Amino acid sequence: YFVLLLCIFLLEILAGVLAYIYYQQLNEELKQTLRETMVQKYKQKDQHHVTRAVDTLQQEFKCCGSNSSSDWAESAWIRSSEAKGRMVPDSCCKTPTEGCGHRDHPSNIYKVEGGCITKLENFILDHLKIIGAVGIGIACVQIIGMVFTCCLYRSLKAEPY
Question: Three-state SS for 55?
Answer without folding.
Answer: helix
